[in-house]
Design goal:
single chain, 257 residues, alpha+beta, Umud Fragment, subunit A, seven-stranded antiparallel beta sheet, four-stranded antiparallel beta sheet
Length: 257
Amino acid sequence: MAKQKPDFKASQIESGKKNSGIGETIKTILIAGVIALSFRSLVAEPFNIPSGSMIPTLLVGDYLFVSKYAYGYSKYSFPFAAVPIKNRVLSGVPERGDVVVFRLPSDVSIDYIKRVVGLPGDRIQVVGGILHINGKQVSRRQIGENDISNGITKMRAVLYEETFPDGHKHVIQELRDDLNFDNTPVFNVPDGHLFMMGDNRDNSRDSRSKAVGFVPMQNLIGRAEFMFFSHNNSSSLFEIWKWPFAIRYDRIGKGIY
């Protein structure tokens, strides 16, 4: 009686299905990764706020989306500056008053977020704590106070509504009008550069400082648009039961002006 040869077709089909399934999974992951990377590079990128230099507009623990298309693209629009773009493409000039994320000129590995105060060709000066643009004093109106602490001493800051010449309004915070950078020389903003300042005027390292200086347009990453999450740091990663009470629900979805 002839011996029957083993039938490997079923196992081969099963193995083929497994290989096909793994291949499809890898393909799906790669496609999803490309889509996510493209969205992050070309459309919007999430950032979080680690310092108080933009108080009261932005608080430590705010998470926001930055539009990448607002001012066009440079090599810093992409992770690790991997795309060798010279200068910018599809470029647009920010408006005075925009809140912008940019690479620090002295160390392009660091991201900063500040408000655009001076455009190319502007003359910027601070006199007695009051901003001057092109020789004219910028209007500011006291609207309230804010209790703050440096961890040791409690202080009271004054909140002002500042109005730029084009009518753009935003709120700034001042401790006093006679501290560092409350009286500066005139800064002449060169072509292709911007002058940036934090809204927390007495606690912001910005273009008034040599550590930052004028910011080249090439260093812009994008315009801050709105907050998608915010927490007050009152709970640790492991204190899950505290999470709901640490979220600032009133800031979620808030636009940035």
